[in-house]
Design brief:
Blueprint lengths: L10 H5 L1 H26 L11 E7 L1 E5 L2 E16 L6 E6 L6 E2 L4 E6 L1 H33 L8 H33 L2 E3 L4 E6 L6 E2 L6 E16 L11 E6 L5 E5 L2 E2 L9 E9 L10 E7 L4 E7 L4 E3 L2 E8 L2 E13 L2 E4 L8 E5 L10 E5 L17
Parallel strand pairs: 1-22
Antiparallel strand pairs: 1-21, 2-16, 3-10, 3-15, 4-6, 4-9, 5-8, 6-7, 8-10, 10-14, 11-12, 11-15, 13-14, 16-20, 17-18, 18-19, 19-20
Helix pairs in contact: 3-4
């Protein structure tokens, strides 16, 4: 009797392929989850952030001098300005020969008016004056002849007086018509509008066909070869704006910085605003600066005094106090200093603060008293100055 040997079944045959895949996939998921958990736990910072020094940027205060500055807003006005229009007649505009920006010479025709009625009236009065002049001449001759007959007894003295009175009356009428003719001549001349001086056309106000009355303007002529910068300052600054005081002008229209001096100052304050009027003459022969624009006037007052200079971002200002954070031995300390002034993005503090102080310029808003800091020192680049240099001829 023969015996048959049985071969053991494999795992796949015994349990099937699907359960094995499920078990293997679950094990792989557990392994990956464990790895991710380990990675996440390894990235957790067990050290408190408050115990780490905060990164800040610091800068050492700079010793300098400071002078209080006054700033005013001024208006750039032309040396001479005129509105050109009729002063005696009412008429329609016939022609306007200029546009804004045109250069004009003194006596140049700017516009003409339709003055036919005025011309006709002028001719009428001229003819009447000529007729009366001839009549008066005839009466004067007749009066002379009559006077020569008085001695012979051919005429009476009363008749001579009547002839002389009649001649004098006609002479008075001639003079009255001549005066009236002079008025009409002025009206005729008023129909041709001319430039009163050399300058530029600042504005053209009407076009041909418009009706103008006396006092209305056709165009504006300005002389910009010399400009006047005018401003009103508080009465408390009267002594600070005396004539010949140096000032710096910044022309907002062109961005120019000019050096000048105060030319004149009003001797009294305005009754309503209690301000002092001042003027600064500025040469403008090249006519590069427009009139009617704004100028920023700045001047220094008083004597220079010692000060410490820091950036505007290094402090919080309230009234005349500046609060800063100074860094010493890696610790931030809050300090309050007297504020002397502010100029062009920089603060000037009382030198009692000390010259070796390192102030925080960046990161100050998140600091608290006594916190540890990691300071990065900021320095000015070579050749950089504390304040921009203002150029211009004084």
């Amino acid at each position: 009797m023969s015996t048959e040997r049985k071969t053991p079944k494999s795992i796949v045959q015994r349990f099937g392929l699907v359960p094995i895949i499920l078990v293997g996939g679950g094990a792989l998921v557990l392994i990956l989850g464990g790895l991710l958990l380990h990675h996440a736990m390894a990235g957790v910072n067990d050290v408190a952030l408050t115990s780490r020094p905060k990164a800040v940027t610091v800068m050492q205060v700079r010793s300098t001098t400071y002078r209080p500055m006054r700033r005013y807003v001024g208006t750039i006005e032309p040396w001479v300005s005129a509105n050109i229009g009729p002063q005696l007649v009412s008429a329609y505009v016939e022609t306007v020969l200029v546009r804004p920006g045109d250069r004009v010479k003194r006596g140049q025709v700017l516009a003409t008016l339709d003055c036919r009625n005025t011309n006709a009236l002028q001719k009428q009065i001229r003819m009447q004056a000529r007729a009366l002049a001839q009549t008066q001449a005839a009466l004067e001759s007749e009066a002379k002849r009559v006077t020569s007959l008085v001695d012979g007894g051919f005429v009476s003295e009363n008749e001579v007086e009547q002839k002389s009175a009649e001649s004098a009356s006609k002479q008075a009428q001639v003079l009255a018509l001549q005066a009236q003719l002079l008025g009409t001549d002025l009206q005729v001349a008023d129909c041709i509008l001319r430039a009163p001086f050399d300058g530029d056309i600042g504005d053209r106000l009407v076009d041909p066909g418009a009706f103008l009355k006396p006092g209305a303007a056709v165009a504006t002529v300005v002389d910009r070869t010399t400009l006047r910068v005018t401003a009103s300052v508080p009465e408390s600054d009267f002594s600070a704006v005396s004539p010949q005081t140096p000032v710096t002008l910044r022309v907002l229209a062109t961005g120019q910085l000019l050096g000048a001096t105060i030319t004149r100052r009003a001797p009294q304050a305005d009754e309503n605003t209690r301000t002092i009027h001042l003027e600064i003459d500025v040469p403008n022969r090249e006519r590069l600066i427009p009139s009617g624009t704004t100028a920023d006037i700045s001047l220094e007052v008083g004597a220079p005094e010692p000060a410490l200079e820091i950036p505007l971002t290094a402090a919080s200002v309230r009234e005349d106090k500046a609060t800063i954070f100074e860094v010493k031995d890696g610790v931030a300390r809050k300090a309050v200093a007297k504020l002397l002034g502010e100029r062009q993005g920089r603060l000037y503090l009382d030198p009692a603060l000390g010259q070796d102080v390192m102030v925080v310029t960046e990161g100050r808003s998140s600091l608290e008293e006594g916190e540890k800091v990691e300071a990065k020192v900021e320095r000015l680049a070579p050749g950089e100055t504390s304040l921009p240099v203002v150029s211009g001829n004084r």
